[in-house]
Design goal:
The complex is a heterodimer. Chain A has helices at about 5-35, 45-90, 95-105, 115-130, 210-215, 290-305, 335, 370-380, 395-450, 455-480; strands at about 135, 140, 150-155, 180, 190, 200, 230, 235, 245, 260, 270, 275-280, 285, 305-310, 315, 320, 325-330, 340-345, 345-350, 355-360, 365. By secondary structure, chain A is α+β, with helices and mostly antiparallel strands. In chain A, a hairpin with a 5-residue loop joins strand 19 (about 345-350) and strand 20. Chain B is flat. Chain B is α+β, with helices and mostly antiparallel strands. The two termini of chain B are about 35 Å apart. Chain B has 15 helices and 46 strands. In chain B, strands 19, 20, 33, 34 and 35 form a five-stranded antiparallel beta sheet that branches. In chain B, strands 3-4-5-6 form a four-stranded antiparallel beta sheet. Classes of the chains: A alpha+beta, B alpha+beta.
Chain lengths: ~500, ~900
């Protein structure tokens, strides 16, 4: 049956259709105005979700790029620092350390050694200063300890120093010159600095010759070699009872035990400024072979890291970061300086002008170039100022060992600098990659979200055309009925 | 019957009248074309024909009609279309109600296209972006660890994040409150419609009794029903109701339309309107509970009962003393048989009274409106049930009389031997019900046949008038209270002064004959004989389920030609209307949509509710779902961040460290070790590492760790207070080095991480005032502090915020331990946030599509209804022309008749 279309029904239908047409036009208009294909999850939940995910990745890539750029700049500063260090170490200019060393070994005149020594020591300070360079507020070569200068020069501490000697403590024996006489001191006191409290013993004859004394005649008693002891008038005697009585020396006595620091010549001092300077890396003496110090240094070089996410797929497994998914941004200055600790048992051979060769085994040769340069400077400064002669044969051999180690240190430095350059190159490449990723992601979400202006405008124009047409139809719907044609 | 000479004038007059009425009806239709709910009216006219033999009739024996008679006015409606329209209207109302609220939620949670364009953040969202910004802030802090400005940035971004969470939670709560108001408002509308419909029913009923079809009132009623159908799904039926003397009027009945899918539930067909009786729908109110009365094993005031033996408070119902339930309306002097209430709440005597546990007078489980504790439910403040449960009140008419439904069953043929209840609790054959005791005839000479006694003459008498009067005794008198020794005229207990009088009984009266033919006073001994005059017996059945209801069994018999009887039984119930508590799914339409949006919690729904109430509840998501999801996000976020920011320092090998000394006697960090003797007595030493679990430790090791504090139950406890307490200060002495603290709390003024929700998540007081972020827990060997720029924990934070995927499980939220244990999502915080938007979008899209579909269908049906019922100009124009022409023709007929009669009367047979 054909439905009876009534005026009321037609109007209702028209109202609904007109509303729909207006709604369509409004949506089209919003698309033009917002330039977006959708403005709520409800319009296209799957697409909206996808776009947010892409935007999330975009934001992540952007922040990775930002931090990658920051790291890149840090590495640039590091590279520049190492370049300066390299200049100091290798450049052939007159005031370079290396040239100074070569000159020290070959210069027959020698007198310039002290000056060269001072120059080398200053260069060592320069090298440490370079390694204490900062990017922003952070020390570049401090590993994870970025707020503190990694290299410091500390006064050389005296390991034998006893701050408050206690006479009853056997461990403090080095601080007391004499062995205490129990009859003169309180119970339990073992040592004393007062000769009057010491155990009195016959004075030993320093020139005593046992064989000579054994075969001596009367005429020989005035000979200095005669007698194990000395009488008060300084003559030798074999009778301890008539010998001059002197306080008994403490065999463990160390005259440096009273000093906190040691000078470069090995003597003690309590003045920090007079003391020899020792290089420290992050509070640990660089040239120490103490297991505790070695453990710390090993941790700095192998265990410590400062991981940062630069877009390598940052991941954790059981709460532990997967190291291959992050970038370790810690730069350990000691690594570039050649390492830590010292070498023992280094065999050194020196040939004199006549071609005679002499060999000596030396210990405690530093491995890092800064300490090496510093010690070379100290040795050269110990040379006699008038003829430049070595202060001791040990110094001469030690200097030779240091020169050899310096060569090795420089070689290691070169390798590690190259290594860092590779890391720097990675950051540069990564920067480009992240930029591409970011741009690509931006392109993706724009393609998904943004309306094509031409399509949006033409859709709007069509919707408006439809709406206008609907309005016109409405005018006809309302005006036409049989009533209008009735003729009474 | 033929028409008389002047009858033709009547014919013409009727035609004119019919045409004129037609024009009036048409005019009315045209006038009301814009009146909402107006149904076009139609004039019903018939040809007038008078039957019977004429005294003077035409010889041609031609019988003609006598004109047109306007019989009635009627409306043109299609009940089928009305049903379809109302069903669809409820569906549309439901979708509309849901979408309305979802759109409001969308304004809060949907961040598509939002973001600060000026900062280049357009389209990145707001809250979602804060998660990304927080991860970025952590990343920057990794690069710049130890610098406070970057630490401050992290805190500020975190502050922004929690502020947004608070804001969104508060706005969701506003939406909830608005929706609650809408529900209450819509319920008021429903009740207004119900009241109006009931009143209209009454008016229409009156009109019908007086013969008026009351078409306009029906239109108004239909309009009200249409409006009601948008709010609740209803089933409208029409039936005829007999008023009196065979006069029947139409009765409109409206019921809920069986919306509950559970076939065992019938409350979804409850009556709302039955003729002139109507109900209301009310939101249930619950008493405000006194939080201090919540059961506490150490507080006797929270124990509800008194012990049956000791009389002291107890919490065990099985140990409680029991007391009879007293009738609150009973007062001293009333019938003792009514002093108590039985299990159905009906007054009864002590023996049949129901029992209840004796209440502890100190137990006050409720709060009054002014916040005072009370034990009386009636005094408690009432608030809307959080489940928004509803009750349909009893049906009442205009003056408040409660509706009683009478349901007559169909009489069924039964055997006369069937055993049935005789109304006194005995089982007897039906045929026995029609028997009466064999009585003796009154014989003045035989005093045992005379029922009364005359004290004056000391003789038995036959009539009450001749008998002595005595006061009516109360047979249930307890023998103590003189005020209830007798019964008054109404049968109520009273004292002697007010006692009713009755004729004194003849103590020797034996009115019956027993089977042996001997007189007897005992009815039970009497011989039962058939009563041929008795063919209908009504028996009230006992043990009715509800007070006020009655069920009658009517037994009838018919004497057959063979001298036997045929029996029938018919059940007649009279059911008093009473309140009906609606099930969760009994309603549909907009009311149900609002209710669901207020209550449905989706995955957070209690599993018992899914099992017992609505198996689909887990998939229904209302405002609470979105609130709880946001809470879960905030709670999980706070939990993860707080956990990551609290711990003990470790060495590079993962051993927890404590203070030790090196060879030089300097203080250094050394691994925490525990030395103990195992069960065999052998000394052992273990090192506590980050992987050490308390439950894996040797019990002897655990004991050793508890030496200073027996309450230690974890490695963390030991590290925190394993050294016991300082005897001077009382402070706990830690073993390890604790670092960090609570970052997010439930209030900006404290560090309490319990019960964190989206609404209360805050930056903790300590973090707000200090730099609390733990950058790293690992110290270099021997050290007791991490390196100044160590940042592995910050990197871990960044990973947690930006990369780590979590299982978001509803049961992780406090108070939802019995919800679904299945993860809603395994994803990052941002993905969880995105998923909330996706869920909302999907729900909105689906609901929008449903609304569009229902609306189109509704429009289609409405158009169909209009095609039947609404006014059309073309139709009315046709009618106008038709009635106009009819009117003209009738007038012409009148003129013609006049002319003809004039000819007949004045010009026929007359010559001049």
């Amino acid at each position: 049956m054909i439905p009876r279309m009534t005026t009321v029904g037609t109007l209702k239908n028209y109202r609904y259709s007109l509303n729909g047409s207006n709604n369509t036009m409004t949506k089209a208009m919003n698309m033009v105005l917002t330039r977006r294909l959708f403005n709520s999850y409800a319009e296209d939940p799957a697409l909206a979700t996808r776009c947010f995910q892409i935007r999330n990745s975009y934001w992540k890539a952007q922040s990775q790029l930002n931090v990658n750029e920051s790291l890149r700049h840090k590495y640039d500063v590091a590279w520049e620092s190492l370049s300066n260090m390299s200049t100091d170490l290798y450049a052939v200019a007159e005031d370079t350390a290396y040239t100074s060393v070569i000159r020290a070994l070959s210069d027959p005149t020698g007198p310039g050694r002290t000056a060269l020594g001072q120059s080398l020591e200053a260069k060592a300070k320069d090298l440490a200063q370079i390694m204490n360079g900062r990017y922003g507020e952070n020390y570049v070569f401090a590993g994870a300890d970025t707020l503190n200068a990694p290299f410091t020069w500390e006064a050389k501490e005296n390991p034998a120093y006893i701050e408050t000697p206690v006479a009853t403590n056997p461990d403090h024996a080095a601080a007391f010159q004499y062995e205490a006489d129990p009859k003169k001191v309180a119970a339990g006191v073992l040592y004393t600095k007062d000769p009057n409290e010491a155990v009195q013993v016959p004075q030993e004859n320093p020139d005593y010759d046992e064989e000579f004394t054994k075969n001596a005649t009367v005429a020989d008693v005035d000979d200095p070699r005669y007698g194990q002891y000395l009488t008060p008038d300084g003559k030798g005697t074999t009778n301890p009872d008539i010998a001059n009585q002197v306080p008994k020396e403490n065999e463990k006595y160390d005259d440096t035990a009273a000093f906190k620091y040691l000078k470069t010549d090995g003597t003690g001092t309590n003045d920090e400024n007079e003391a020899a300077k020792v290089l420290y890396y992050r509070g640990v003496p660089v040239d120490s072979n103490d297991p505790a110090d070695v453990e710390k240094m090993e941790y700095f070089l192998k265990g410590e890291s400062k991981y940062i996410d630069v877009g390598l797929g940052h991941k954790e497994t059981d709460g532990e970061v997967v190291s291959s998914t992050v970038f370790d941004s810690s730069l350990q200055g000691i690594y570039f300086a050649g390492g830590y600790g010292t070498k023992n048992g280094v065999k050194v051979e020196i040939e004199d002008d006549e071609g005679n060769k002499e060999t000596m085994v030396v210990d405690n040769i530093p491995k890092n170039v800064i300490s090496i340069v510093n010690e070379m400077g100290q040795i050269l400064q110990r040379c006699r100022k008038d003829d430049g002669a070595w202060a001791s044969k040990e110094d001469q051999f030690r200097f030779k060992a240091l020169v050899d180690e310096f060569e090795d240190g420089c070689s290691a430095f070169r390798e590690r600098w190259t290594e860092m350059d590779t890391q720097s190159g990675f950051l540069r490449d990564n920067s480009e990659l992240l930029t591409d990723t970011k741009d690509s992601l931006q392109q993706q979400y724009m393609e998904l979200e943004d309306a094509d202006p031409a399509a949006a405008i033409s859709d709007f124009m069509f919707a408006r055309y439809c709406y206008d047409a609907a309005l016109k139809v409405g005018n006809s719907v309302l005006s036409q009925s049989l009533m209008d044609y009735m003729n009474f | 019957m033929g028409i008389g000479t002047f009858g033709s004038f009547t014919q013409a007059r009727l035609a004119i009248y019919a045409a004129q009425t037609g024009i009036t009806v048409t005019g009315n239709n045209i006038s009301n074309i814009n009146t909402p709910g107006y149904t076009r009216q139609r004039l019903n006219q018939v040809s007038l024909y008078t039957a019977g033999a004429d005294r003077y009739y035409s010889a041609g024996d031609i019988r003609t009609g006598q004109g047109a008679l306007v019989k009635s006015l009627s409306q043109i409606r299609s009940p089928y279309l009305d049903i379809r329209y109302r069903t669809l209207n409820a569906q549309m109302g439901y979708a509309d109600g849901r979408l309305e609220t979802l759109n409001e939620i969308q304004q809060i949670l949907d961040e598509v296209g939002s973001g600060d364009e000026s900062k280049g953040e357009g389209g990145h969202g707001v809250l979602g972006l804060e998660f990304k910004k927080l991860a970025e802030a952590f990343k920057n802090l990794v690069d710049q660890t130890g610098h406070q400005e970057y630490d401050n940035t992290v805190r500020q971004v975190a502050k922004n994040l929690v502020t947004m969470l608070n804001k969104y939670a508060n706005r969701l709560e506003e939406v909830r409150e608005n929706t609650e108001s809408k529900l209450e408002q819509n319920l008021e509308e429903v009740n207004d419609y119900l009241t109006t419909i009931r009143s209209l029913n009454e008016e229409i009923r009156k009109s019908e009794i007086h013969g008026d079809p009351a078409l306009e009132l029906r239109d108004e009623r239909n309009l009200q029903i249409d409006k009601l159908s948008e709010l609740i799904d209803i089933n409208v039926t029409y039936s005829e109701e007999e008023i009196a003397g065979g006069l029947k009027v139409e009765k409109l009945t409206i019921r809920l339309d069986n919306a509950n899918p559970d076939s065992q539930v019938f409350t979804d067909e409850s009556l709302l309107i039955d003729g002139i009786f109507g109900a209301q729908i009310k939101l249930d109110k619950l008493p405000v509970k006194n939080p201090d009365a919540e059961y506490d094993p150490n507080n006797r005031a929270t124990w509800p009962y008194l012990h049956k033996d000791t009389g002291k408070p107890t919490s065990a119902l099985s140990q409680a003393a029991m007391v009879k339930v007293e009738n609150p309306n009973w007062t001293q002097g009333d019938d003792p048989a009514l002093r108590y209430l039985d299990a159905n709440g009906n007054p009864t005597d002590e023996a049949n009274a129901a029992e209840k546990p004796m209440a502890n007078p100190a137990y006050m489980p409720y709060l009054t409106a002014d916040g005072k504790p009370t034990a009386e439910l009636s005094e408690a403040q009432k608030v809307t049930d959080p489940n928004y449960s509803m009750t349909i009140t009893e049906l009442k008419n205009k003056i408040g009389e409660v509706y009683v439904a009478m349901n007559k069953g169909t009489p069924v043929a039964v055997s006369g031997d069937r055993l049935v209840d005789d109304g006194q609790g005995k089982q007897v054959a039906i045929k026995e019900l029609f028997k009466v005791p064999k009585t003796r005839k009154v014989d003045p000479k035989d005093s045992t046949t005379l029922p009364f006694w005359d004290d004056a003459n000391n003789v038995a008498v036959a009539t009450a008038a001749a008998a002595t009067k005595e006061k009516v005794p109360n047979l249930k008198w307890d023998g103590k209270d003189p005020n209830s020794e007798f019964l008054n005229e109404d049968g109520e207990p009273t004292d002697e002064a007010h006692a009713a009088l009755r004729p004194k009984q003849n103590p020797n009266y034996k009115p019956y004959m027993d089977a042996a033919g001997k007189p007897t006073a005992d009815l039970d001994q009497a011989q039962m004989v058939n009563d041929p005059t008795k063919n209908r017996i009504a028996v009230t059945t006992p043990d009715l389920p509800n007070p006020g209801d009655t069920t009658l069994m009517v037994y009838k018999r018919v004497l057959l030609s063979n001298g036997t009887y045929a029996y029938t039984a018919q059940m007649i119930t009279q059911e008093v209307s009473r309140p009906v508590s609606l099930d969760d799914n009994d309603l549909s339409g907009k009311i149900q949509a609002h209710r669901e949006m207020l209550t449905e919690q989706g995955e957070f729904t209690d599993r018992d509710v899914i099992a017992d109430v609505d198996e689909n509840a887990g998939g229904k998501r209302g405002i609470p779902y979105y609130q709880r999801t946001l809470d879960l996000l905030a709670n999980q976020f706070a939990k993860v961040m707080n956990e990551a920011n609290q711990g003990f320092l470790m060495d590079p090998d993962g051993n927890y460290i404590t203070t030790g000394k090196n060879d030089q006697g300097e203080e250094i960090g050394v691994p925490v070790t525990v030395t103990y003797n195992d069960a065999g007595g052998a000394q052992k030493t273990i090192t506590l590492t980050k992987d050490t679990k308390w439950e894996d430790l040797d019990p002897e090791a655990q004991k050793a760790m508890q030496a200073n504090d027996p309450t230690i139950e974890s490695v963390a406890d030991y590290l925190k207070r394993g050294g016991g307490k300082d005897p001077n200060t009382g402070e706990e002495i830690p073993i390890g080095f604790f670092r960090g603290g609570v970052l997010f709390s439930n209030n900006p003024g404290n560090d309490d991480p319990s019960g964190i929700t989206a609404a209360n998540i805050s930056i903790s007081n300590t973090w707000d005032t200090t730099h609390l972020l733990v950058c790293d827990y690992t110290c270099p060997p021997g050290s007791t502090e991490p390196a100044s720029g160590a940042s592995d924990n910050i990197r871990h934070f960044e990973y947690l915020v930006g990369e780590q995927k979590f299982d978001f499980i509803p049961t992780d939220l406090d108070g939802y331990e019995n919800a679904s244990g299945v993860p809603m999502l395994n994803g990052t915080f941002f993905e969880m946030w995105n998923s909330i938007g996706t869920t909302l979008g999907e729900d909105q899209k689906y609901t929008g599509t449903m609304l569009e579909t229902h609306y189109k269908n509704l429009l289609s049906v409405d158009t169909e209804r209009d095609s039947v019922s609404s006014v059309d100009f073309n139709d009315e124009a046709m009618n106008l022309m038709m009635y106009s022409k009819s009117y003209n023709a009738a007038c012409r007929l009148m003129t013609t008749i006049d002319s003809v009669l004039d000819k007949l009367i004045n010009n026929t047979g007359m010559t001049t």
